[in-house]
Every structure is written in C-alpha cells, then in structure tokens.
C-alpha cells in the first residue's frame, strides 16, 4: 500500500521535488510480480547523490512503467527471461535515466516510428501503441527533457534526460512583466 501511494503521489502536489530513485524503486515494487513471473533480473547502477528534480512524479512513474513493461514483454517473448539494467547519473543541469534490456532489440526499419501514437510491435489485442507515445509526451512536453532510443539485437536502451528545474510557466512569466 505504501508503494502504491508513493508511486501515484497520492495526497501530494502534482509538481514537486522528486527523488528519481524512489520513483523507479516504487515502479519496480508495483511490477515485482511480473518481473518475478517472467524471470527478469534487475540490475541497478544508481548514481551517488543524485539531486532531486522538480517534476510531475506520478507521470514520470508512468514513463518508467511503460518502458519497463515493454522491456519485460520483449525479453520474455524472446527467451523467457532476461536482464533489465537501470542506470542513473546527473550533472549540474540534468538527471539522466537509462533503462536497458537484453531482449531481441527493435528492428532498424521501425525505430523512427516507436514514439508514434498507436504504433505497436505487439500482437493484435496485446498492446495499444500508447505507452511510448505517453512516455515521449511526459518527458519532452511536460518536463522539457529528451528521450532517446538506442537498439540493436540483444540490447535496447532508452536514455532519458530530465532538467533538474522546470522552466517557469508562461503564465508566471507574464505576471512578472
């Protein structure tokens, strides 16, 4: 129950100072049954002293959920098990999260479409094609960050850059003029 409340940021402001590691760990707790059932090993390489970022925490948790869920499905479809690697690091301006799996990879000819709404590599009735579109919108539009796909056979990596501070909204800028 604690993980669910924390994952959803229940009873908290929508935008606040967020600990990326806590969000990822809450996501892994929520998804533990699927990781266990699909025989997925999780390897964490968390950066030391990663700063808090100003973010919509529940939306970021949806990003982690969508990418991890896709990775689990890809690995379990390929060989019934796999390894999910999660790496974080930061600099003066940004926090970075890399989520990597050792599934079959995403074919080159469809990589340019992977963030399009309703595009899916899953079978009919299995995927909606909205997970990576949502992830892209949350990272790029809502958080002014960047999400990048790097994929080859045996490795798919999503690198996500999130600014430590969000730019002031246009409304706040207008009221200060």
Structure report:
By secondary structure, the chain is of the alpha+beta class. 39% of the residues lie in helices and 27% in strands. The chain is built from 7 helices and 7 strands. The chain has helices spanning 2-8, 20-30, 32-37, 57-79, 108-111, 131-142, 170-175, and strands at 15-18, 40-45, 53-56, 82-90, 94-101, 146-152, 155-163. The strands form 2 sheets. It has a 5-stranded mixed beta sheet with strand order 2-4-5-7-6. A two-stranded antiparallel ribbon has the order 1-3. The longest helix has 23 residues, at 57-79. It is globular. It starts with a helix and ends with a helix.
Helices and strands in order, then pairings?
Blueprint: H1 2-8, E1 15-18, H2 20-30, H3 32-37, E2 40-45, E3 53-56, H4 57-79, E4 82-90, E5 94-101, H5 108-111, H6 131-142, E6 146-152, E7 155-163, H7 170-175
Written as H for each helix and E for each strand, in order along the chain, the element string is HEHHEEHEEHHEEH
% residues in beta strands: 25-35%
The parts where pLDDT drops under 50 for at least 5 residues are 170-177
What is the mean pLDDT? Answer: 86
The assigned structural class equals: alpha+beta
